[in-house]
Design brief:
By secondary structure, the chain is of the alpha+beta class. It has seven helices and nine strands.
Length: 394
């Protein structure tokens, strides 16, 4: 028996733990969705974020390493095109930077950042006007506020470009690591002298993590990923926990109903045995069961009424105690005495109310039993007289 009770207790703890975990998951998902909606409305470029971080899916190869694959492409070209292609292969050493190359299909975590904290070599996401979309490239140079620099693009140091910044914030010169990206301006790739001028107000944030696994995850949960599975999987992230909690709640309700029914049947059997009711006498069992259920229901109603009165009294006492904090000790003692007197009166009323139905019900039961016994005597007398008549006829 003790082992059985221990199993029940363990099951309850596990059930409560699962409910709590799923509730936290749902609350987190709801919070994330609300945060993303609110932040996207407040963001100048409608980029959703959670705790100052945004999640992006890489859709091009502009930040892939510009080396092995493109060497094969260059080998297939001839003449001037081949020379130009080979000159554009810039395989930079990015090992000293916090973020290296990343491929199409990777996932990025973007953190909001103060433009003054961005350094050369950082990868930043920014709104690029020609594309009318977000772009993520590496910072090649920084033009300080209200200043200018002479910039030599990486791989084309012979081409010096003078860049001015007339704003009160730094300006960033960026470029993708792969000049042969699929979205380049021509079939031969970007020009080696190509770079973007990005004003600080256009910056969304700095890349803090790039991962292929995270990209796969986003393809399952982000509706913005083209060709992803979010239209199917995303609702499941919300519906599945709700269905599990609902199922567990239904199971708990069914168990409680069964437990209540079992308790009621055990009490009924004990009451019938105490009253000497024959289980084979259907009529007697039916009448006793109806009366038993009536008594049980009345007892439950009385308990509910008790709880209601207690709750009301506690609330009243709390109000009076709060009000009593500003009165004199004599008045406080008088209020306590008055409260005790009111509590005694409520208890007396409660006692009378609980006894009155029991007395009236007892009288009613006695009357019903007397009537039943009278009918049974009349039926026995009738059967006896009928038997005498049948003997006389014989």
């Amino acid at each position: 028996m003790a082992r059985k009770e221990g199993k029940k207790s363990t099951f309850k703890l596990v059930s409560y733990g699962i409910d709590a975990f799923l509730a936290v998951v749902i609350a987190f998902l709801v919070f994330v969705m609300i945060s993303m909606v609110v932040s996207s409305r407040n963001s100048p470029y409608n980029v959703p974020s959670v705790f100052g971080h945004s999640f992006l899916y890489v859709m091009t190869d502009s930040m892939a390493v510009d080396k092995a694959v493109n060497e094969k492409e260059c080998a297939a070209k001839e003449g001037a095109k081949k020379e130009r292609c080979e000159a554009m292969i810039v395989a930079e050493d990015v090992s000293s930077f916090s973020i290296g190359h990343f491929e199409s299909g990777d996932g990025l975590i973007i953190a909001s950042v103060n433009p003054n904290d961005i350094k050369v070599g950082d990868c930043i996401s920014f709104y690029y006007e020609p594309l009318r979309a977000l772009d993520t490239h590496r910072v090649k140079a920084i033009v300080p506020a209200n200043s200018s620099i002479d910039y030599a693009p990486v791989g084309d140091e012979s081409n010096i470009v003078h860049v001015e910044n007339k704003t009160n914030k730094p300006k960033f010169l960026t470029r993708g690591d792969n000049l042969h990206a699929s979205l380049s301006s021509s079939s031969d790739g970007w020009d080696i002298s190509y770079f973007e001028e990005v004003e600080a107000d256009k910056v969304v944030g700095k890349v803090t993590m790039a991962s292929t696994g995270f990209g796969n995850f986003l393809s399952f949960v982000s509706p913005s990923v083209p060709g992803g599975y979010a239209t199917v999987t995303y609702p499941l992230f919300v519906l599945a926990p709700l269905l599990i909690i609902g199922s567990l709640s239904i199971v708990d309700v069914i168990k409680e109903v069964r437990k209540e029914k079992k308790s009621r049947n055990e009490e009924l059997a004990a009451a019938m045995a105490e009253a000497g009711i024959d289980p084979n006498d259907e009529k007697a069992v039916y009448m006793f069961t109806v009366k038993f259920d009536m008594k049980r229901e009345m007892a439950e109603e009385r308990e509910k009424e008790k709880e209601r009165i207690k709750k009301k009294m506690r609330k009243q006492m709390k109000k009076e105690i709060t009000a009593a904090s500003n009165i004199s000790p004599e008045e406080r003692e008088a209020m306590k005495a008055k409260m005790k007197e009111e509590m005694l009166k409520e208890r007396e009323k409660e006692k009378e109310a609980s006894q009155a139905p029991e007395l009236s019900e007892r009288e009613k039961l006695k009357a019903e039993l007397k009537e039943q016994m009278r009918k049974e005597r009349e039926e026995a007398k009738r059967l006896e007289e009928q038997g005498k008549e049948e003997k006389g006829d014989d």
